[in-house]
Amino acid sequence: HGNAAEVVLRAASGSAGEPRTREALRLEQLRESLSITEQKRKEEEERNNEYERQERMKREKEEQEREEARIREKQALEEAREREEKEILEKEQKARRAREERQREQARVELRKKREREETERKDQERREKEERDAKLILDAL
Q1: What angle do CA 133, 128, 120 make, to 5 degrees?
Q2: pTM of the full predicted structure?
Q3: Predicted pLDDT of residue 12
Q4: Using an 8 Å Cβ cutoff, are 14 and 20 in contact?
Q5: Averaged pLDDT score across all residues of the chain
Q6: DSSP 3-state assignment of 14?
């Protein structure tokens, strides 16, 4: 579009160079004004659309970041739960092994004591039998 003076001069001369009526001139000015207004409206609409697109992209990015943070938090909680379960299992296994080792040691002690008793009983039996033989030999010698 030209400047306003050019618009008025073009509107002032008709197709055959005849002066236009004020009404025709006014109509031409209104058309020009309407065209400018329409162009401004389209530009404003484009700016608004671009702003809305940017805002929508920003919201989508923020939502994606929140979702990723939720996923990371969920994974961290799951990993912590798994570590706790693993620690509990390891403690239970350690306690079970210690209990089993105490039971084995107790069984070894009981077995040793039983063998000692049996050995003592065998020696006592042998001593009694020897005393009985000695006593019989002494009685036989009398």
Answers
A1: 145
A2: 0.44
A3: 52
A4: yes
A5: 89
A6: coil
